[in-house]
Design goal:
Layout: H1 2-23, H2 28-44, H3 48-55, H4 57-60, H5 63-81, H6 85-111
Helix pairs in contact: 2-5, 5-6
């Protein structure tokens, strides 16, 4: 049941992003930033944590979950280190995911030959 719930809720988040892409003039990069910022804001007002506990991977895997993860890291680090934690916390919480993305994309570039096409 958790898999189905995660699939449906994660899909709803992705559908929302697709609707933004189809019906606005926002570029995909800006929509991605909007989703990350939405996760931070919803985490700051206390809405995203109960949602993430309910939806599990359906809420933590999309970009809104990444924003929420940044918020949690910053909040914990500010409580421990004060103002310096504002700069340190996000890096600490997001380091593993960001490092994995960089390492796997580099490995993929070694395995596959990218093709540059002219428009």
């Amino acid at each position: 049941m958790d898999y189905i719930k995660a699939f449906i809720i994660g899909g709803i988040i992705c559908v929302f992003a697709q609707i933004l892409m189809d019906n606005t003039k926002l570029m995909p990069g800006r929509i991605m930033v909007l989703l990350v910022c939405a996760g931070v804001i919803l985490g700051a007002i206390g809405v995203y944590e109960p949602f993430a506990n309910f939806a599990k991977a359906g809420a933590t895997v999309p970009l809104t979950g990444f924003g929420y993860n940044l918020w949690v890291g910053i909040k914990e680090s500010v409580n421990q280190d004060g103002l310096l934690g504002l700069f340190r916390g996000g890096f600490k919480m997001a380091a593993v995911g960001t490092s994995a993305a960089l390492i796997f994309s580099y490995l993929a570039s070694l395995i596959f030959k990218p093709k540059i096409t002219k428009n």
